[in-house]
Specification:
The protein is of the alpha/beta class and 317 residues long. Helices cover 41% and strands 17% of the residues. The chain has a domain of 166 residues: TIM Barrel (Alpha-Beta Barrel). Helix 6 links the parallel strand 7 and strand 8. The structure holds flavin-adenine dinucleotide.
Length: 317
């Protein structure tokens, strides 16, 4: 089933979460253990993030450094297939522009078709750590909408070079990202919304939001989307805080604000264990309120927070 069908057929607010592929050299069993902890809440689907390679400096034997490209979290396609086959839960791999060429994307689409995966989240992806700003690969894309175009052509049965494909094809259904507090590069919320509308008009079936800690920002975003003619489901993404350091790290990395009452509670915490309790309580309140507002589903950012997400889900589902 496509995520679009799943969201439209659900009877109540659904539950989904994202996982990261294991770090290079780590085993997939730990990832399975995390999923096992959340399985009882009947996830509608599980997202698998995607990560670009990074340039790092390594010591050479002669005392110099050499610059090498390292892919720290490879394997999103394989992890998605492993999850979908093991659990029978639809897997939604993220497809990103960052660090990938069009041909590499085409190979990924072919592999996903063979693996029976027909749901995607299409994103531009984060910039490389060594770059000051996002830079496309030679032969890559500047924006998610260009990647949507490649997937649209693939869905219509054409490879990049316009050769007609003989594959038995199941069209990909995909979502895109939306930012209740504006994407950090957009000059203003209106322009960000116009760009989001372009992505929706290009064929996205649903939107997943960046994390937010103040539900009012999500409700306002949904109202602005609806006023702009965006009618597809807008799935809220939320994250339980688990570390004291996230008080400053999350706003810095994700360009989101934290409401003052949350900030005050977190500042009182002397240990991560205390911060985790505050995070569970706050996230559960957010989830309860979102469910009361009848949101289609809640998407949980569960990185480092599987246990907290389990506790929130226990409290609200
Ligand atoms: P875009 O839609 O390309 O937007 C980026 C900026 O360009 C915005 O400011 C937008 O207003 C502007 N813009 C958009 N279209 C146009 C256009 N046609 N012309 C001019 N300007 C335009 N990152 C990863 O690396 N891996 C992941 O797995 C991952 N998963 C994510 C999941 C979710 C739910 C979210 C919300 C984010 C995720 N990210 C991930 C982070 C994401 O890649 C970054 O936020 C990235 O900076 C923007 O991605 P995007 O798809 O929104 O880009």
């Amino acid at each position: 089933m496509t995520i679009s069908e799943i969201l439209s057929q659900r009877q109540k607010t659904g539950f989904s979460f994202e996982v990261l592929p294991p770090l290079r050299g780590s085993h997939i069993e730990k990832l399975y253990r995390n999923i096992d902890q959340l399985r009882e809440f009947d996830p509608l689907y599980i997202n698998i993030t995607s990560h670009r390679s990074e340039l790092v400096f390594q010591d050479a034997a002669d005392g110099t450094y050499r610059r090498v490209k390292v892919h720290n979290r490879p394997g999103s396609v394989a992890v998605a297939a492993a999850i979908q086959n093991k659990y029978g839960i639809p897997a939604v791999p993220h497809l990103i522009c960052s660090g990938f060429t069009r041909s590499e994307t085409e190979y990924a689409l072919i592999e996903l078709s063979f693996l029976g995966i027909n749901n995607l989240l299409i994103l531009r992806g984060d910039k490389a750590k060594h770059d000051a700003r996002y830079t496309p690969e030679p032969g890559g894309y500047a924006h998610a909408i260009e990647l949507e175009e490649q997937v649209r052509r693939f869905n219509e049965g054409y490879f990049m070079d316009d050769v007609r494909m003989e594959l038995a094809k199941t069209p990909f259904c995909y979502g895109v990202a939306g930012y209740p507090e504006k994407h950090f590069e957009a000059p203003n919320p209106e322009e960000d919304l116009r760009n989001l509308k372009l992505k929706v008009d290009a064929g996205a079936s649903y939107i997943v939001t960046q994390m937010f800690f103040d539900n009012a920002k999500y409700y306002d975003f949904v109202a602005r989307c609806r006023a702009a003619g965006i009618t597809i489901p807008i799935v809220p993404g939320i994250k339980p805080i688990v570390l004291c350091s996230q008080l400053t790290v999350l706003p810095n990395v994700f360009h989101v604000d934290m409401p003052d009452p949350l900030v005050k509670e977190l500042k009182k915490c002397k240990t991560d264990a205390e911060a985790k309790e505050v995070g569970v309580e706050w996230c559960a309140q957010q989830a309860k309120d979102l469910i009361a507002h009848g949101v289609p589903s809640i998407h949980f950012y569960s990185f480092l927070a599987t246990d907290s997400v389990r506790r929130v889900a226990q409290a609200v589902y």
